[in-house]
């Protein structure tokens, strides 16, 4: 019986960390998380599997049976999914230990729901800045937006993503070959959120 009380106290202590969420929601998410990931963490391989099962959004899960896709397209889609998952995994894996816990997911989610502009943009910047250099090259920025468009629309949208990147750079009065900093991201978020949400 002592173990049960200890477990409940630990769970309640964990729940109290996340005031942005209802305790019953956290309990449900925890139960679902543990059923999907019995080891109580997500590996990069688990994340790849999730994304390859659910993305691109408007394509069937088995990319090889889609007749309009060429083998090179399937290869490119898989590369995009892998790149995107690697970025997402690094951004979510706060402890940098190769395992994403429910706590790490809740921290990131709470930043997006109730976080300050600084917290939100810092997390987004961290997502793009996979090498943790403090700046994001135009190439990395463009490639990531290409990957997101592919995941969302199920097709390559180079023109659309290039147009968006150009608009964002122009809005910052940045040289199109320069890198973006965290300050640039904060400025984009505060002054050009309409471009980012598109």
UniProtKB/TrEMBL annotation:
<keyword id="KW-0449">Lipoprotein</keyword>
<keyword id="KW-0677">Repeat</keyword>
<dbReference type="InterPro" id="IPR028846">
    <property type="entry name" value="Recoverin"/>
</dbReference>
<dbReference type="GO" id="GO:0005509">
    <property type="term" value="F:calcium ion binding"/>
</dbReference>
<protein>
    <submittedName>
        <fullName>FREQ</fullName>
    </submittedName>
</protein>
<keyword id="KW-0519">Myristate</keyword>
<comment type="similarity">
    <text>Belongs to the recoverin family.</text>
</comment>
<dbReference type="InterPro" id="IPR011992">
    <property type="entry name" value="EF-hand-dom_pair"/>
</dbReference>
């Amino acid at each position: 019986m002592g173990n049960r009380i200890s477990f409940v106290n630990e769970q309640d202590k964990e729940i109290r960390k996340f005031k942005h969420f209802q305790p019953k929601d956290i309990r449900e998410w925890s139960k679902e998380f543990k059923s999907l990931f019995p080891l109580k963490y997500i590996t990069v391989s688990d994340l790849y599997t999730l994304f390859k099962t659910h993305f691109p959004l408007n394509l069937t899960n088995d990319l090889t049976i889609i007749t309009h896709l060429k083998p090179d397209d399937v290869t490119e889609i898989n590369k995009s999914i892998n790149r995107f998952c690697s970025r997402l995994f690094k951004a979510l894996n706060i402890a940098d230990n190769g395992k994403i816990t429910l706590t790490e997911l809740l921290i990131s989610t709470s930043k997006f729901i109730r976080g300050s502009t600084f917290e939100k943009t810092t997390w987004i910047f961290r997502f793009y800045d996979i090498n943790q250099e403090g700046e994001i090259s135009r190439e990395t920025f463009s490639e990531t937006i290409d990957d997101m468009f592919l995941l969302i629309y199920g097709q390559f949208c180079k023109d659309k993503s290039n147009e968006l990147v150009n608009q964002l750079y122009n809005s910052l009065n940045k040289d199109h070959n320069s890198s973006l900093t965290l300050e640039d991201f904060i400025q984009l978020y505060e002054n050009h959120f309409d471009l980012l949400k598109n």
